[in-house]
Specification:
By secondary structure, the chain is mainly beta. It has one helix and 27 strands. The protein is globular and about 55 Å long. Bound molecules: manganese (II) ion.
Length: 296
């Protein structure tokens, strides 16, 4: 779906505070991925807790998938660029995530789910973002939505197509809205040399991850497989991203309102205190996060 644009006038663009390379790791049953937003950045990039990027043509890197595992206290947003992944969870939800689609899952008080590839060959590429929940919502009932690629609003502006997963850009409302954290999640496809402006509240934490080509932000080049943390200078009213050189580029622009609450993570649980983490571990052990789904 594509709609017409309203200009985003940015007068004082943000600069890059820091460039981050990410850390190669594996998770689940041996899935190779790059952890772009790592635990030491959780406070700086509040309300975002993690960003994993995965992209490979080798089935050995993804075939094990993510068998049954629990979550509590936050939301997971999985964006599939290429490939097919089957989700099943203890709340009875099941869905197939495929090319260009998004799965938005609110773990709330707890869920056990599996995320397993439904392909034995070909390319698997995408991202999983973890978005924190405010303390008052951490124990909410689990919730889940599959957003098919055709249901993600798109807007085309001066050589850039923005896929609006969450938040608003150029007068177009995204597929998702969230009170409390007000996330903006854009997947931007740049023609060579094109630029894109986005207004951002100065207090919102924001970052850009380039996954094809190269961008220039406030005069600084950002190559593929790099994340730029954008500075929160007072008075800055947005960001301007420009595709450099003669090649197209693709990037995620993600921003949100920080919660300013304590963050305590233990593996798949993210709460505000050690006592709440201990309770989560105990509830998981005693089966209070639900029964495992049949898939794994
Ligand atoms: Mn998971």
């Amino acid at each position: 779906m594509e709609t017409s644009a309203v200009a985003e006038n940015v007068n004082q663009p943000r600069s890059i505070e820091r460039v981050v390379a990410g850390m190669p790791t594996s998770d689940g049953a041996g899935v190779k991925l790059t952890r772009v937003l790592t635990q030491p950045l959780q406070t700086r990039l509040d309300p975002f807790l993690m960003l994993d990027a995965f992209g490979t043509d080798n089935p050995d890197d993804y075939i094990g998938g993510f068998p049954n595992h629990p979550h509590r206290g936050f939301e997971t947003v999985t964006y599939m660029i290429s490939g097919r992944m089957r989700h099943r969870d203890s709340a009875g939800h099941e869905g197939l995530l495929s090319n260009g689609g998004v799965q938005w899952m609110t773990a709330g008080h707890g869920i056990i789910h599996s995320e397993l590839p439904e392909q034995e060959a070909g390319r698997m590429e995408g991202f999983q973002l973890w978005l924190n929940l405010p303390a008052k919502d951490k124990m909410c009932p689990p919730w889940y939505r599959d957003i098919q690629t055709g249901d993600i609003p798109e807007v085309r502006v001066a050589g850039v197509t923005a896929r609006v997963i969450a938040g608003n850009t150029h007068g177009v409302a995204g597929a998702m809205r969230r009170e409390g954290t007000h996330p903006l999640y854009l997947d931007l496809h740049f023609d060579a040399g094109a630029s894109f402006s986005q207004k951002l509240p100065a207090e919102h934490n924001a970052f850009v991850y380039v996954y094809r080509g190269e961008l220039v932000i406030a005069g600084v080049s950002l190559p593929a497989q790099r994340m730029a943390i954008l500075a929160n200078a007072s008075g800055a009213d947005g960001v301007v991203l420009k595709a450099s050189g003669n090649t197209p580029a693709r990037a995620l622009l993600i921003a949100g309102q920080p919660l300013g609450e304590p963050i305590v993570q233990h593996g798949p649980f993210v709460m505000n205190t050690d006592a709440e983490i201990a309770a989560a571990v105990d509830d998981y052990r005693t089966g209070k996060l639900g029964r495992e789904s049949a898939s794994a």
